[in-house]
Amino acid sequence: MAETTTSALSPEIQAAVNADTKTQLDDGVEKRVPLLLGDPSFNDVTEIVCRPVEWTVPRAWYIFFGCAAMLLGVLVLSTAYLFWEGTGIWGLNNPVSWGWAIVNFVFWVGIGHAGTLISAILFLLRQKWRTSINRFAEAMTIFAVMCALLFPTIHVGRVWLLYYVFPLPNQMAMWPNFRSPLLWDVFAVTIYGTVSIVFWYTGLIPDLATLRDRAKTRVRRIVYGIFSLGWRGSARHWQHYEKAYGMLAGLATPLVLSVHSVVSFDFAVAQLPGWHTTIFPPYFVAGAIYSGFGMVITLMVIARKLFGLERIVTLRHFDNMAKITLLTGSIVGYAYSMEFFIAWYSGNPYETFTFINRAFGPYAWAYWIMVTCNVIVPQIFWFKKARTHMGVLFVVSILVNVGMWFERFVIVASSLSRDFLPSSWDYFSPTIWDIAAFVGSFGLFFFMFSLFVRFLPMVSMAEVKTVLPKADPHHGHHDDDHGDDHHGDDHDHGDDDAKEEEE
Amino acid sequence: MASSNSPSKSFGALAEFDGAASLVSACEKVRDAKYRKWDAHSPFPIHGIEDAMGIPPSKLGYVVFVVGLTGASAGLLLQWWTNAVDYPFIISGKPLFSWQAFVPVCFELMVLFSAFACFFGMLHFNKLPQLYHSLFRSERFERVTDDKFFISIESADPRFDEVKTVQFLKDIGATHVELVEE
């Protein structure tokens, strides 16, 4: 329970955390708090991160896992019924043939993108703060992509014919049409999932070796031993390893941008008013990062508390994440207004109608939920107090994802339900099975996530150790003024300069 | 240890160091003493240790480049063969070989091939997976993935000498030196 988990911090450390928290609230840019609180040693980092994997699991975990498993059961049952009966059980109708399945697909792919942004793009930009949260965010990416891939898969209806989308020689002597964005999407999302797993596993190898070397039972030693591939921290190995890691980051960066651009092509290449716009790729990518950071914050607020990660995931991390949320939320807001402007400026009557219809038509309720959650709510992050307050962060991050789900719903449903010809218009309402599949997908996501925090290190130990001042081989020269916070900061800058010179 | 009747083979000497700084300066001395079959071990990558050890830069980048180009070419070939040659059909009045539409899939396949090349290339260069290694016999070595730093010099090295090498490692700042059996 909660008492057993919070007692992880000894009184002195708790005092240090509190003191750091205080300075954190009134620091300037020059005098920033350290990334890690209480000046942890290498061993401290190992202990803090390994603890949730090795110690008796809190009862809260079992409750959480049980709930997730039940929701997963809902998904399995609703999917089984769907396969038996067909997509008619959903609320799909003649104009709105995409419905919630595609809304959910875009929603989940989007959530995944923040993980890759943190692990790859911030790595290339040498943002040291990413080391505390990248493993966690990458895990989120993988599970989100699993949920995302589920929806187009079950949406094809006759799921046993799914192999049509792959270029496999078949008895009909037919090939898929590579001039369709829907096929690009098959490649983009499956490859994105695969590359994310490769990247994640590469990062895990040294940490799995740590768990192997600390294992108390034979089973753990063998299982972690196999998955750590015999890693022994060799400098000759680290050299190739770092090269591979850097290149994977370099590959994942354009990949993540391409994936959501391709997802947006599913819409933008169609000729439907409200979909057929060139702003879609950047607008979708910004929205994806926005929703993904929302999800990282939601999960991290809980995990940090539950597993006692306060020293490694500090307020500075939340502060930075909230800033990115504010930035991308504002980009999304800009895109909304620009869509309206272009609808008017283009002089296209269908486009103009579509946007007026979005804001004041039958889906106005969804539209205004979207605007409130995505444009207005994140503006609270202009205030530092809000960016570093756990309660505010938690509530806002959930609203962010509510808003982003509604964004995709507005795009899919409002455009499809009222296209060019009024005689073909129809209103979309979900059935219980739409809701079951969506809620069930959260079951899948949280089921995987519970297993992840239980059996794998949720912070990259090897990477966090590299950002400690002691990890720098030249650190010893300054030993006299060791422990001085300000000195630590100077040192950080010096290290950054050195890295830039190397490049 | 059963090294009293000497034919028992030893893998080499394992020296423990306190921190990254002492490991790097010790590496420079081992390099200058012209040892060849040796290695440094640390819980995390240390910047500048390649120079201190005198190991050449990784060639992984060239491998990934070639494999990535292969991926992109394979993607183009696949799309050309399937949509323009083997099963030609006109859609939206576009040319059969409309290369612009083939760019996304070529790019994705380039990334896929390159990512696999990164991962498997790294394993190949590192000769991993290698689930057993003589160094795992050492109890102290378990902390290499936690907070300790090591240098291992193999007995296969022509300059290796059970007495002199151990003394040498102590002289360059090792806090503890042991001989590890094969």
Q: Secondary-structure blueprint of this entry?
A:
The complex is a heterodimer of chains A (503) and B (182).
Chain A: H1 2-6, H2 11-25, H3 42-54, H4 59-85, H5 99-124, H6 134-155, H7 181-214, H8 218-227, H9 235-268, H10 280-306, H11 315-345, H12 349-360, H13 364-376, H14 384-387, H15 390-417, H16 432-455, H17 461-466, H18 485-502
Chain B: E1 10-17, H1 20-32, E2 38-41, H2 49-53, H3 60-86, H4 99-126, E3 149-154, H5 162-171, E4 176-181
Antiparallel strand pairs in B: 1-3, 1-4, 2-3
Characterization of the model:
The complex is a heterodimer of chains A (503) and B (182). Chain A is mostly helical and 503 residues long. Chain A has one domain (2-14, 40-473): Formate dehydrogenase/DMSO reductase domain (Formate dehydrogenase/DMSO reductase fold, Up-down Bundle). Chain A contains 18 helices and no strands. Chain A has helices spanning 2-6, 11-25, 42-54, 59-85, 99-124, 134-155, 181-214, 218-227, 235-268, 280-306, 315-345, 349-360, 364-376, 384-387, 390-417, 432-455, 461-466, 485-502. Chain B has 182 residues and is of the alpha+beta class. Chain B has five helices and four strands. Chain B has helices spanning 20-32, 49-53, 60-86, 99-126, 162-171, and strands at residues 10-17, 38-41, 149-154, 176-181. The longest helix of chain B is centred in the middle third of the chain and has 28 residues, at 99-126. Chain B starts with 9 loop residues before the first strand and ends with a strand. At the A-B interface, α3, α7, α9 and α17 of A face α1, β2, α2, α3 and α4 of B.
Coarse morphology of chain A = globular
Series of secondary-structure elements of chain A, N-terminal to C-terminal? HHHHHHHHHHHHHHHHHH
CATH architecture descriptor name of chain A: Up-down Bundle
Helix content of chain A: 55-70%
Here the CATH topology of the largest domain in chain B equals Alpha-Beta Plaits
- The helix tally of chain A amounts to 18
The CATH class of the largest domain in chain B: Alpha Beta
Number of domains of chain A: 1
